[in-house]
Amino acid sequence: MQNKWLFTTILVLLALQSVFGNVDVRLFAFPVGLLLGMATVVVPFVVERTAGDKAFVKACRSPRMACQLLAVTALWSVVGGSLPQGAEATGGAMLFLRRLGFLDFTTSLPFVALLVTLLLHLALVVFHRLRSFKPRRDAAFLLIHFGLWLALFSGVFGAADSVELRCAVVKDSATRTAYDSNGRVTMLPYSLQLRDFKIDTNPADGSPVQYSATVLLDSVPVGLAVNSPYSISLCEDLYLMSFDTIGPSAADYYCILQISRQPSKYPMLAGLVLLLVGAGARMKRLKN
Questions:
Q1: Which long-range contacts (CB under 8 A, 24 or more apart) does 218-224 make?
Q2: Global model pTM greater than 0.85
């Protein structure tokens, strides 16, 4: 029964995907995303409290349902991850795959629906276990499931508020202009200006081993290096991405910086930590 229900639901979602296309994540920016996310908490709580003993609810929170959801989600990720994401579809098989959402699978309607369904399932499981909670028996179980739920919740409903911008900085003047992946202009709440750029080389052969820059952030110097970002705030980081020269002089560098805004970064990290702690506690208990 569950297999038939899941298969039918996926077929319906694929049909809707082919008609309406991918989910526009910008529609779910704060506060809409937060409200929808909270609904994935309130609805399972109410369902578990009022109908937790009914057969349908038991089936929805069963281990079999968890395995099916995880298997389909993993399969969808493998198929989508093996295809060129964002590729242009000119016809034939590629056009068919784009219509089904596989060329932008992370925002496809079936994939988003699978993640939301998994969130609802995890919430049901957590609330059900809390009804008869015993610390020694249930602590690790709840840490694993709540940690996974929190990480997934942060990724799904925080995606709309995550932004990556690029900004070119030079020595001559400061700028507040950055661009998103579609070339749209965004004005930054602070100014950026290149103060110095340095290439560290290997003494043995003179090959470059590291690139670093000093950037003025609202006239305050901050250091950047490749794979060593500067944290502007808890949810915003500044990365050194690339560099080039202006004019014939090799000393006249300009740098491309990336501004990464991820408000859900730390809740997601907290969820992963809880998941690992719970898994460690579970393994320790099994050994004993």
A1: 218/190, 218/191, 219/191, 221/195, 224/257
A2: no
By the 8 A CB rule, do 11 and 73 touch?
Answer: no
Note the pLDDT of residue 25. 84
Q: Is the dihedral of CA 185, 186, 192, 198 positive or negative?
A: negative
pLDDT band at 249 (very low <50, low <70, confident <90, very high): low
Q: Please give the Cα distance from 66 to 43 (Å, whole number).
A: 18
CB 196 within 8 A of CB 216: no
pLDDT above 80 for 6: no
Q: Exposed e or buried b for every residue in 25-62, given b needs 16+ CB within 10 A? A: beebbeeebeeebeebbeebeebbeeeeeeeebeebbe
117 Cβ neighbours under 8 A, 6+ residues apart: 69
**pLDDT reading at 250 higher than 60:** no
Mean pLDDT (the chain, rounded)? 89
